[in-house]
Amino acid sequence: MKMREIDVKKITETVKRLCVEANTAANKDLKDKLSESLKNEKSPAGRAVLNQLLKNLYIAETEKVPICQDTGFAVVFLEIGIDVSLKGGSLSDAVNEGVREGYTEGYLRKSIIKDPITRPVNTGDNTPAIIHTEIVPGDRVKITLLPKGGGAENMSRIKMMKPADGVMGIKNFIIETVDMGGENACPPLIIGAGVGGTFDYAAFLAKKAILRRIGDRNPDPAIAEYEKEWLDEINRLGIGPGGLGGTVTALDLFIEVFPRHIASFPVAVNIQCNAARVKSSIL
Amino acid sequence: MSIKIETPLTDTTVKKLKTGDEILLSGTIYTARDMAHERLVSMIKNNRELPFNIKGSVIYYSGPSPARPGHVIGSAGPTTSYRMDSFVPLLLIRGLKGMIGKGPRSEKVIEGLKANCAVYFGATGGAAALISRSITEAEVIAFNELGTEALRRLTVKDMPLIVINDCYGNDLHKEGIKKYRSLKI
After folding, report:
1. What is the ipTM of this complex?
2. Residue B185 is nearest to which of A43, A67, A175, comparing CB atoms?
3. Which residues of B are catalytic?
4. Gap between the Cα atoms of A97 and A102, Å rounded
5. pTM
6. Which residues partner with B152 through β-bridges?
7. Fold annotation for B3-180
8. Distance, CA of A239 to CA of A42 (rounded, Å)
9. Interchain contact, B63 vs A56, CB within 8 Å
10. Alpha-carbon span A202 to A267, nearest angstrom
11. What is the rounded average pLDDT of the residues A176-195?
12. pLDDT 10s digits, A194-247
């Protein structure tokens, strides 16, 4: 079979475009869910916050300015078809060039510090990106850009539970994580949970979970049921929009799972803010 | 009904503000976040003059995105406040009267607000493009090399805020969440 050739310049162009689009134009599922929440929210202060958020999304999209000043760490998911041959240079260089151009030319904030410990100097172009690459069947390349803000990321947690902790252990850890940091993370939130795998893989699954569209359930009916039930409990925490008290604390809960070691039971919770920005494109 | 107030803040103004009040703030405010706070506190400890008059001032925890041509500023919403908590007591003693951010504050900050007659306002996290509309002027006045973290002087007109912690020890986060909480953990 003949390989489909793709120049990495295409990757750069696409990443650049996605950086700007993701940061300025919210997806329909988010807008719809915020509008629906406005009808369900019982707290007047909570409704005022939701109104501001909807107005904000409108301004950002029409004026092409960032939804949030924190335009995030550029997290890039690449699904590369096995029948694709990438030409013209390094894949990671191409992605980073896209981030550099997107953040610079798109007037997006540069939030990345070069040396995390000793020299707090900004890299100046929001690189490097965090890149997750997966080889998939076919001859396409799917690029997904998730600009991830620091405030919500900071409220994320991981726990290596005991196998005996069971389903209740997962539920309690997820709800406790939202309860501990929810007000700081710009609610209403989207909650991503990763269960199983190793320490690192559970965190990856939690991050991958927040790429889902609001309302999309896990294909496993038992897990889908947990998502619905636990979301309802999260919304009874009372945190509400802006953390000012209310009945809409989270817009959705997504759970992703993977087989685990007989001794290990990792659970990771990745918190996403109300400015839930994610855009994809297929080459 | 929103209450219109202006900077610099005085004891009289601060005493009138109660947790939950909706505010429209006008006047001069200063942006500072993690790095700028470290520097400001270090300047105070080394007896150096601060780059702005802190008496009656309001600090906004925000690192704006770059301004597009023809715009005063980019998007400029609040960042999470707890990261600045440890710097606040000293700034309050030096005359800081107000802070704008998002999320709850430590007990020490709340005590400091009571002791120094100061207030903590919340701005809506995630509403950065909307909030920017209330900013009419912006200028970097110190720490330019910090980029988005530089100290900026902003002029704001009717900036939409809510009183989270007043000078009487009340806390909107605690009270609001208690009211709507129906889950027992």
Report:
1. 0.96
2. A175
3. 37
4. 8
5. 0.96
6. B31, B140
7. fumarase (3.20.130)
8. 12
9. no
10. 6
11. 98
12. 999 999 999 999 999 999 999 999 999 999 999 999 999 999 999 999 999 999
